[in-house]
Amino acid sequence: MYFANTYRIEDTSGPADALKSLEATLGKETTYGTGEKQLSAADLRKYHYMFGMEYFDDPSELAEYDSYEEAVAAVEEGLAQGRGGATKVYRIDIPGRNETVFGVALNDSGCSGDEYIMSRVDKEAIRSTGHLPYEILVSDGDVYALYARFRIAISWPHLPMIQSDTGATFFNIMCAPNAIEEALIDAAGGDI
User: Fold this and answer.
1) Is 144 helix (H, G, I), strand (E, B) or coil?
2) Distance (Å, whole) CA 87 – CA 94
3) Residues 101-113: pLDDT tens digits?
4) Beta-carbon neighbour count of residue 148 at 10 Å?
5) Contact 104, 184 (CB under 8 A)
6) Which of 163, 141, 159, 139 is nearest to 149 (CA)?
């Protein structure tokens, strides 16, 4: 439900049903996204980490093509070639729409890599593995991704900027947002 609200899903009955099914199958210990600073559904639907940072509706524009088919083919090719250190984890074609969501692993050993991010900020007892994989959205001929400063912040909404007991801070990954955007632009076949 945390990400259903973050991603502004209008009808949350589907995610609510999926949550009930998961709880029945796996059990439930706690709710994701809770902590010292509680974020309500309304907070999540308008979330940004701080002044000047992106919102959900401020995505990175990775590439533009003449058609949906051309855009999907370009992303498939880029991921198959591992451009930008990105590889395909999954592909979901949205029924009845010219939209496809790709789950993307970022395998680069530098600032854009999944291991780089997770090793520096994912230090709480309850891990934020739900941050992975990154998503690329093809909508008609346009290719987008959530901007990394939003995407990372929403996965760790309580992460401080410069100091913490665990050593996990946004300062530790300052190079990541731009590096992630460049990696995803490369994977999508856009201009860097």
Assistant:
1) strand
2) 20
3) 999 999 998 999 9
4) 22
5) yes
6) 159
Q: Distance of alpha carbon 135 from its chain centroid, rounded? A: 5
Residue 140 Rama label (left phi>0; alpha psi -120 to 50; beta): left
Taking CB atoms within 8 Å and a gap of at least 24, the contacts of 63-69 are 63/142, 63/143, 63/185, 63/188, 63/189, 63/190, 63/191, 64/141, 64/142, 64/143, 64/190, 65/141, 65/142, 65/143, 66/141, 67/140, 67/141, 68/98, 68/99, 68/100, 68/138, 68/139, 68/140, 68/141
What is the reported pLDDT for 86?
Answer: 97
Distance of alpha carbon 100 from the chain centroid: 15
Q: Taking the model in full, what pTM does it have?
A: 0.88
Structure confidence at residue 189 (pLDDT): 96
Q: How far apart are the first and last CA of the chain?
A: 35
**β-strand partners of 60:** 145
Cβ atoms of 180 and 116 closer than 8 Å: no
Helix (H) or strand (E) holding 87: strand 86-93
Contact 44, 31 (CB under 8 A): no
Among 18-32, 98-112, 139-153, the minimum mean pLDDT is found in 18-32
